[in-house]
Amino acid sequence: MTERTRRAGISVAAIIPAAGSGQRLGGGSPKAFQPLAGTTLLRRSVNAVAPYVDVIVVAVPTAWCEVASEILVGTACPVIVVVGGATRQESVVAALAILPPEVDVVLVHDAARPLVPPTVVTAVLAELQAGASAVVPALPVADTLKYVDAAGQVVGTLDRTALAAIQTPQGFRRDILERAHRAAPAVATDDAALVEVLGIPVLTVPGDPAGFKITTPYDVVLAEALLGRDA
Ligand code: C5P
Questions:
Q1: Which of 42, 44, 91, 96 to mutate to test the pocket of ligand 1 (most atoms within 8 A of CB)?
Q2: pTM of the predicted model, to two decimals?
């Protein structure tokens, strides 16, 4: 138990989906296993949540379990490595299946978001500890978003003021996250979407631009520049 969770009397786990191939990023290994200024995305993302949780479950591609265990030696809390699935959702389900029984609250954090600052992690946890069932970090949308058809023709514009870009870690009461994944009607790109389908309110806390998802080589350049600035 960390000091934080012991005080609140709840047991917190983190699930790190890290089983994506990272095709848009390229490189010879899955995205989570690629280095960012010398340290893998996986290690950085695990380190970002480790001080605030009691156990971490990492979902990785089949052939990468041993490498993941080696990369994560010395993590500040116990780590369990499982084989992920064909989609992010399947990877989260695989991790949920082996959560220790005492876990009350779960943070799901993408391995692809290695620079999330502590303030975002603690803000999500604080709302869960205050009684929220589901909490996500949100940022205002800077660009104007439009519907575009297959021919490249604009067919509509969304109201930007009513939109938010959603990051991770997303935090949930364990029973609600399990129920949401059991009921999942379709493939979703985040866990909160499945909770929304159940009609359960999802609260937002302020996200942080540093919590962006590493997707393309441009994102790696940006992340390494940010790490260099902080060094
Ligand atoms: O592909 P994308 O970057 O949106 O994936 C978000 C996160 O989900 C990444 O950390 C990725 O490793 C993970 N993922 C997974 N299993 C998959 C696909 C993605 O754990 N099959």
A1: 91
A2: 0.96
| Cα 3 from chain centroid (whole Å) | 23
The residue ranges of every structural domain in the chain are 3-136+165-230
Q: In a mutational test of the pocket of ligand 1, which residue from 24, 83, 88 has the highest number of ligand atoms less than 8 Å from its CB?
A: 88
Q: How far is CA 223 from CA 35, 153, 212, in A?
A: 11, 33, 9
91 alpha carbon to ligand 1 midpoint, in Å? 8
What residue's CA is closest to ligand 1, atom 1? Answer: 20
- Please give the distance, rounded to the nearest whole angstrom, from the Cα atom of residue 3 to the centre of ligand 1: 30
Task: Tell me if 94 sits within 8 A of 83, measured CB to CB.
Answer: yes
The two structure tokens encoding residue 120:
């975002």
Q: Closest ligand 1 atom, CA of 86?
A: 21
CA dist 110 and 46 (Å) reads: 9
Query: What confidence tens digit (pLDDT) does each residue in 124-161 have?
Result: 999 999 999 999 999 999 999 999 999 999 999 999 99
Task: Convert the pLDDT of each residue in 192-206 to its tens digit.
Answer: 999 999 999 999 999
Measured CA to CA, the distance from residue 180 to residue 188 in angstroms comes to: 11
CB atoms within 10 A of CB 202: 19
Class of the 3-136+165-230 domain?
alpha beta
